[in-house]
Amino acid sequence: MPFDNLLLERDGAVATITINRPKVLNALNTQTLDELRRALLDVRRDDSVRAVVLTGAGEKSFVAGADINELAVQTPTGGRQHALTGQHVLDLLENLGKPVIAAINGYALGGGCELAMACTIRLAADTAKLGQPEINLGLIPGYAGTQRLSRLVGKGRAMELVLTGAPIAAADAERVGLVNRVVPAADLLAEAKKLAHQLARNAPIATRYILEAINKGLEMPFAEACVFEATLFGLVASTEDMKEGTAAFLEKRKPAFKGR
Ligand code: CO8
């Protein structure tokens, strides 16, 4: 089924997903969230996709949040369901098994900041602004923002960002660890794609296990997470790519990973 509100493009092993509702600063309505879920399932299923770039259409906004037109008329049960649906889609993104680079090309507010936080690595344009302004609408974050933000920037900074609702500039977001790197706006997409292509050349199974070890391991007690890591290490030792990677090093050549 084609998408109305997003673009899905391919360049070799890299897929680029662009949230495409620029007239409303790429706000996430129910349809867009559902299209994103479908696009992510397509990308997850396709072994030839090894990395993903996620961005917003236009120069002004990555995603300016959940669509406030829908939030304004939600019911208590509908609101709960909406939040759970959004959390499910962001969970899918975080645990896609391939790295997702957020190219934050402008406003990443509310659900937009939550979307960026579910990505693996965040690059921001120097013009970007990030924040959780839900409090200004009499709301709270609902796509797991309270949880991912406090894990990324620490409890004190998360409290300040969510309680004040004030957005921060890209440079400050980098300083507190909310984004990995800030680049000039004109270079953002190229830099994100360059990083995605670089990660796409790595051994896919090792990449998937690193994502799992960090994502799942962080939610476990330390000792259990270490055992989990060791088990994944053992599994990766059974791959052809491990043999190829170590042989290539010893033979002083570049490895050619096959994902086996
Ligand atoms: N939803 C719907 N429409 C939006 C949104 C949005 N989040 N953001 C912007 N728009 C629309 C505007 O209404 C406007 O439409 P129109 O042209 O028809 O008037 C158009 O986009 C352009 O926006 P502005 O004219 O406001 O552009 P400015 O440059 O003046 O301002 C801002 C840009 C500062 C980004 C401003 O648009 C803004 O404050 N937007 C809202 C940001 C916000 O509060 N986001 C958080 C929303 S709440 C949320 O995300 C909760 C997520 C969890 C939900 C859990 C489920 C229950």
Which class of secondary structure composition applies to the elements?
alpha/beta
Encode the helix/strand succession as letters. Answer: EEHEEHHEEHEEHHEHEHHHH
- The residue-averaged pLDDT reads 97
Bound molecules: octanoyl-coenzyme A
- How many DSSP helices? 11
Strand order of the largest sheet: 1-2-3-5-7-10
The largest β sheet comes out as: 6 strands, mixed
Q: What is the rounded Rg?
A: 19 Å
**What is the percent of helical residues?**
40-55%
Cα distance, first to last residue?
A: 31 Å
Number-wise, the strands total: 10
Q: Sum up the overall morphology in one term.
A: globular
Strand percentage? 15-25%
List strands and helices in order, with pairings.
Blueprint: E1 6-11, E2 14-19, H1 30-45, E3 51-56, E4 61-63, H2 68-71, H3 76-94, E5 100-104, E6 107-109, H4 111-117, E7 121-125, E8 129-131, H5 145-153, H6 155-164, E9 168-169, H7 170-175, E10 181-183, H8 188-200, H9 204-217, H10 222-236, H11 240-250
Parallel strand pairs: 2-3, 3-5, 4-6, 5-7, 6-8, 7-10
Antiparallel strand pairs: 1-2, 8-9
Helix pairs in contact: 1-3, 4-5, 5-6, 9-10
The protein binds octanoyl-coenzyme A (CO8).
Residues 24-25, 27, 64-69, 71, 79, 82-83, 86, 107, 109-111, 133-134, 137, 139, 141-143 line the site of octanoyl-coenzyme A.
